[in-house]
C-alpha cells in the first residue's frame, strides 16, 4: 500500500482564495474590513516565525493585520491591559495571544479576558464550553483545519473510530469534542501520555491523529493498514528542519492516506484563523456568519 498524500498546502491556497473573495465582497457590500491582532510576548524564534506567517496571510486575504510585540519582561497587568484595549478596539475582530508565553505569565486569565466575540483562537473557557455543549462559536484553528483536511480527503468520520493522541487545550481535547458532535458522529478515543499500550489502541483506529509534539511517536506497527494518519506535530529536528510526530516514510507504506509535515496541517491552521476572523467580523455586525 502506498498512502495518498493529503496536500494541506494546496487546500490552504484554495480556501484562502475563497476567504479573500469573501473579504472583497464584505468590503464592497458593507464597508467592512476584518481585522486581526496578534500579540507576541518575547523573542521565541519559532513564535516569531508563526506570528510572521499569520501576519502575511492576513494581509494577503485583504484583512487588517495588527502585530503587537511586547518585551519578554512584560507584566501580567500590562498584557491584560493590552487585551482590554483590543477588546474595545472597533477595528479589531479577532485577538490571538501567541503561545507559549514567558514563564512568569499565566495564560489562563488572559484567555478568559478575551472578548468571546473576538476569540478566534478559541481558548477562552466560554468558547470551549460552547463547543462542549454542542453549540460552538469559534472552532480552534488547528482542529478546524483537521476537519477540513478530512473532508477534503473524502474521509467519512460518521461511525468510524478516531484515535487522537494528545489531550492539549489547543488541539487534542477540542478535536475530540468536534468529532463527536452530531454530523461528525465519530467514536473518539483520546489517548495521552498515561495511555497503556498506545500501539494497541492506535491499531483499532480508522483515523489516527498525532498531536503530542514528539518526533517518531507514531510508528508503522501502530497503524492498521489503510488507516488515515493526520500529523499535527511541529517539531524541530536536529538539523533544524520541521518534523511531525509521525514516522512519515514508514507510514507511507502502511496508511491509506497521510498528511505531510510541512505542508499538511500547519498551513490549514493559519487558514482557519483567517476563516474565524472573517466569521467574527460578520457576527460582530449582526451579519450571518457565512
Ligand atoms: N495562541 C496560539 N495559537 C496557535 O494556533 C498556535 C500557538 N499559539 N502557538 C504555536 C502553535 C503552532 N502553530 C502553527 C501554525 C502554523 C504552522 C505552519 O504553517 N507550518 C508550515 C511550515 C512552517 C515552517 O516551515 O516553519 C507547515 O507545516 O507547512 C505550524 C504551526 C500555531 N500555534
Automatic annotation (TrEMBL):
Family (UniProt): Belongs to the tetrahydrofolate dehydrogenase/cyclohydrolase family.
GO CC aspect terms: cytosol
Metabolic or biological pathway: One-carbon metabolism; tetrahydrofolate interconversion
Subunit-structure text: Homodimer.
Name assigned to this protein: Bifunctional protein FolD
Keyword set, alphabetical order: Amino-acid biosynthesis, Histidine biosynthesis, Hydrolase, Methionine biosynthesis, Multifunctional enzyme, NADP, One-carbon metabolism, Oxidoreductase, Purine biosynthesis
Keyword check for Amino-acid biosynthesis: yes
Any one GO molecular-function label of the UniProt entry: methylenetetrahydrofolate dehydrogenase (NADP+) activity
Record's catalysed reaction(s): (6R)-5,10-methenyltetrahydrofolate + H2O = (6R)-10-formyltetrahydrofolate + H(+); (6R)-5,10-methylene-5,6,7,8-tetrahydrofolate + NADP(+) = (6R)-5,10-methenyltetrahydrofolate + NADPH
Binding of NADP(+), residues: 166-168, 234
InterPro entries the record matches: Aminoacid_DH-like_N_sf (IPR046346), NAD(P)-bd_dom_sf (IPR036291), THF_DH/CycHdrlase (IPR000672), THF_DH/CycHdrlase_cat_dom (IPR020630), THF_DH/CycHdrlase_CS (IPR020867), THF_DH/CycHdrlase_NAD-bd_dom (IPR020631)
Coiled coil: none
Record-listed E.C. numbers: 1.5.1.5, 3.5.4.9
BP term (GO), one: L-histidine biosynthetic process
Residue ranges occupied by any Tetrahydrofolate dehydrogenase/cyclohydrolase catalytic domain in the UniProt entry: 6-121
Lineage top rank: taxon: Bacteria
Claim: NADP is one of the keywords in the record: yes
Domain Tetrahydrofolate dehydrogenase/cyclohydrolase NAD(P)-binding: 140-283
SUPFAM superfamilies xrefs: Aminoacid dehydrogenase-like, N-terminal domain, NAD(P)-binding Rossmann-fold domains
Encoding gene, per UniProt annotation: folD
Job description of the protein: Catalyzes the oxidation of 5,10-methylenetetrahydrofolate to 5,10-methenyltetrahydrofolate and then the hydrolysis of 5,10-methenyltetrahydrofolate to 10-formyltetrahydrofolate.
Organism of this sequence: Egicoccus halophilus
Amino acid at each position: 500500500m502506498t498512502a495518498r498524500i493529503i496536500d494541506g498546502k494546496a487546500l490552504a491556497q484554495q480556501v484562502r482564495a475563497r476567504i479573500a473573495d469573501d473579504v472583497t465582497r464584505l468590503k464592497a457590500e458593507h464597508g467592512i474590513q476584518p481585522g486581526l491582532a496578534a500579540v507576541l510576548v518575547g523573542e521565541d524564534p519559532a513564535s516569531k516565525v508563526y506570528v510572521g506567517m499569520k501576519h502575511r496571510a492576513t494581509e494577503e486575504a485583504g484583512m487588517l493585520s495588527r502585530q503587537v510585540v511586547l518585551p519578554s519582561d512584560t507584566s501580567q497587568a500590562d498584557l491584560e491591559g493590552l487585551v482590554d484595549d483590543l477588546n474595545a478596539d472597533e477595528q479589531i475582530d479577532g485577538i490571538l495571544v501567541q503561545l507559549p508565553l514567558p514563564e512568569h505569565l499565566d495564560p489562563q486569565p488572559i484567555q478568559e479576558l478575551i472578548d468571546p466575540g473576538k476569540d478566534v483562537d478559541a481558548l477562552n473557557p466560554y468558547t470551549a464550553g460552547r463547543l462542549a455543549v454542542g453549540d460552538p462559536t469559534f472552532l480552534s484553528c488547528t482542529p478546524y483545519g483537521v476537519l477540513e483536511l478530512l473532508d477534503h480527503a473524502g474521509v467519512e468520520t460518521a461511525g468510524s473510530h478516531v484515535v487522537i493522541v494528545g489531550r492539549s487545550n489547543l488541539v487534542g481535547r477540542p478535536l475530540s469534542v468536534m468529532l463527536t458532535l452530531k454530523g461528525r458522529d465519530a467514536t473518539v478515543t483520546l489517548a495521552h501520555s498515561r495511555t497503556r499500550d498506545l500501539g494497541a489502541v492506535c491499531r483499532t483506529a480508522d483515523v489516527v491523529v498525532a498531536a503530542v509534539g514528539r518526533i517518531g511517536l507514531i510508528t508503522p506497527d501502530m497503524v492498521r493498514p489503510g488507516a488515515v494518519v493526520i500529523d499535527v506535530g511541529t517539531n524541530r529536528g536536529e538539523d533544524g528542519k520541521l518534523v511531525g510526530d509521525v514516522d512519515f516514510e514508514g507510514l507511507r507504506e502502511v496508511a491509506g492516506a497521510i498528511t505531510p509535515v510541512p505542508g499538511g496541517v500547519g498551513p490549514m491552521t493559519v487558514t482557519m484563523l483567517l476563516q474565524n476572523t472573517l466569521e467574527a467580523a460578520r457576527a460582530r455586525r449582526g451579519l450571518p456568519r457565512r
